[in-house]
Amino acid sequence: MAEETSPYLLQHKDNPVDWYPWGEEAFEKARAEDKPVLLSVGYSACHWCHVMERESFENEETARLMNEGFVNIKVDREERPDVDSIYMAATQAMTRHGGWPMTVFMTPDGAPFYAGTYFPPVPSRGMPAFGQVLQSLSDAYTNRRDEVLKSAEGVREYLQAANNASIPRTGLSEGLLDDAANALLGQLDDRFGGFGGAPKFPQAMNLEVLLRHHARTGDRAALSGLELTLRSMANGGIYDGLGGGFARYSVDEYWLVPHFEKMLYDNALLARLYLEAYEATGDAFYRRVATETLDYLLRDMTGPEGGFYSAEDADSEGEEGKFYVWTPAEIEAALDPEEARLALRYWDVTEGGNFEGKNILNVARPPEVVAREFGLSIEELAGSIQGIRAKLYEVREGRVRPGRDDKVLAAWNGLALRAFALAARVLPEREDYLEAARNNAAFLIGRMKEDGRLHRSFKDGRARFNGYLEDYACVADGLVSLYEATFERRWIEEARALADAMLELFWDADRGAFYDTPSDHEELVTRPRDVYDSAAPSGNSVAVEVLLRLSIVLEREDYRERAGAVLEDLSGGMAQIPGAFGRLLSALDLYLSQPYEVAIVGEPGAPETRALAEAAFSGYRPNKVVVGAPEGDEAAVALIPLLAERPTRGGKATAYVCVNHACQMPTTDPEEVKRQLGVS
What span, in angstroms and rounded, lies between the C-alpha atoms of 210 and 505? Predict the structure, then answer.
């Protein structure tokens, strides 16, 4: 384990358990010693993973039972989503629930026969003690082998059948999009926002479905539900009001008490959603939350070479949330008396507290109310809070920080790359966002891609594991957005190369969809195909969207056909359970639309060219592509047909706005670009 790069695996290297990383060595040992395999799957920011380690994996007697009866494998679910996907499906089939830590017992050929999640050290709340489970299963494998093998074979057959099953198809139509949006609106909490009750997750992709529905239909309820949710989240404890960024989820229905870990994918998806809400409404509140979130990623989650780190823990000094909570005395010691009085009221800090006797900062009442109480204008209140935030943040930086998972994952970096690239266009004054996007793309291509193959994970100078479908799709998607932010041809060329590799390595011609693992991947109990959007989008969903974007930019009808085949294959799923297909529904919205094509001819860095590009991103038009090049750039024209026969007018940078194969009059005026796009 000491030779691994995963921070999660390295956390376990000193356990008395004889851990193996996933690989043939462990399974060979299991076959040679005729022992079952104990697979433990988790991730570095997982609170209950840490708890089970302290209670069981660091316990000498428990470790003895594990080592004597089993070959023990520890897997970081973020490095090996294929392994996690297969055995999570098995766990859910056997127990009707899932989560991490995930504990799976299987035969030496990888077939699971018993599974669960967290097991306590002593019997508790209807759960057996972990030691009891170990003894019982070791005895069953030794003395009732036929029963164990029969169970394992049944689970194997279930996994293989489930992987090949398909939901009956339905038609691809705007009616499907309308029904999906209305179904999501029906699940919306009209008091606190979000979907359903506690625990409550941000679900950025389903919220994007509502935003797109509003843009397409003008439905005010969709926009109102989105805005209620975005404001409630940003004012709640799930949002870090001092340092920016969102925690993983809220344990309650009103976004107050988070599970404190911060994940790169959540913050990348939410930063983009808040930017798009700003584009759609012009409300500076959404802009502020987006920039604070991106600034958090730049400050705390960016490596020296430009890669974005994966996560920050919920715990510090062995306590969940300790880094983030406050007492009134701590705030009073950090601020002047009048500042402290304002801060206590603004963030609802009390002696009783709202979390284990302390306070999670949250904006519990409208700022207008607080401003009136203190005789301030809204602008004066905002200025005061900004200064107070800086002081409290400086004090908090003196605390022991939560642990950070500093591995770089390609797929999650692709999500962040798209967010920073969009921010560079929507907020052109933030040149640091464009620099971050360029650095990140250069890192992904230069350090995580080798001989045309993308790697999954990077840490300590080592790129490891062949990339999965989601890695290729998300990085390609981010590169398309970076091209739109820069008009630098290399990024669209790299995106095309990844898309071609994606079709070669992952495409299933019989099914008309993608597998998650490449065709030359190690043989597992089944070849996984995860089509559902969960906390992060599925590889299939992002692959569809990026193929559609590239099909427009490059005029590649074969890309559109492959994307359409996946949409057809999963159409029944989108109709039946839209909440599990948020990103794919957005891709379907693009597929069914008549997208705007904006071609800008002019020197990319020139002020007049930038002004036209900024106009193209000044309002919310999700179904558009924006391309650009200097006049006479034959290589760009050869690659991007949208740039063909596009001269400048009067030697000035010129924009061409087209839709449905019909172009409007070319213009040099940014305001006219907005008018032609319908966003002025």
Answer: 33
* Residue 347 to residue 324: CA distance in whole angstroms: 13
How many C-beta atoms lie closer than 10 Å to residue 368's C-beta? Answer: 11
Write out the DSSP string of 218-230: --HHHHHHHHHHH
User: Which 3 state secondary structure label does DSSP give 117?
Assistant: coil
Gap between the Cα atoms of 147 and 417, Å rounded: 50
Instruction: Encode burial over 492-524: b for 16+ CB neighbours within 10 A, e otherwise.
Output: bebbbbbbbbbbebbbeeeebbbbbbbeebeee
**Residue 604 token pair:** 């990319």
pTM here?
0.95
Closest alpha carbon to 49 in 107, 9, 108, 95:
9
pLDDT of residue 45: 87
Residue written as tokens 């911060």? Answer: 262
Cβ pair 20, 73 in contact under 8 A: yes
pLDDT at 165: 77
Token representation of residue 343: 């801060």
Per-residue pLDDT, 662: 87
Q: Are the C-beta atoms of residues 222 and 214 closer than 8 Å to each other?
A: yes
* DSSP calls for 166-189: -PPP---SHHHHHHHHHHHHHHB-
Pairing of strands 112-116, 102-106: antiparallel
Total residues belonging to the chain: 680
Query: What's the half-sphere exposure (Cβ side, CA atoms, 13 Å) at 217?
Result: 19
Residue 608 DSSP SS3:
helix
Rg (CA), the chain: 26
Number of Cβ within a 10 Å radius of residue 35: 20
Cis peptide before 81 (omega within 30 of 0): no
Cβ-contact 395, 335 below 8 angstroms? no
Strand order in the sheet with 624-629: 624-629, 596-601, 654-659, 662-663
| H or E element at residue 159 | helix 145-164
pLDDT score for 164: 79
Q: In this structure, how many other beta carbons lie within 10 angstroms of the beta carbon of residue 202?
A: 27
Instruction: Give me the residue label for tokens 């200064």.
Output: 387
Report the distance separating Cα 108 and Cα 296, nearest Å.
44
Q: In order along the chain (680 residues), what is the average pLDDT of each group of 10 residues? A: 90 96 96 98 91 96 97 97 94 91 96 95 89 96 96 92 84 96 97 95 97 97 98 98 97 96 97 98 97 98 98 92 98 98 98 97 96 97 97 98 96 98 97 98 98 96 96 98 97 98 95 93 92 94 98 97 96 96 98 97 94 96 97 95 94 94 92 93
Residue 643 is given by DSSP the state G
pLDDT at 510: 87
CB 524 within 8 A of CB 86: yes
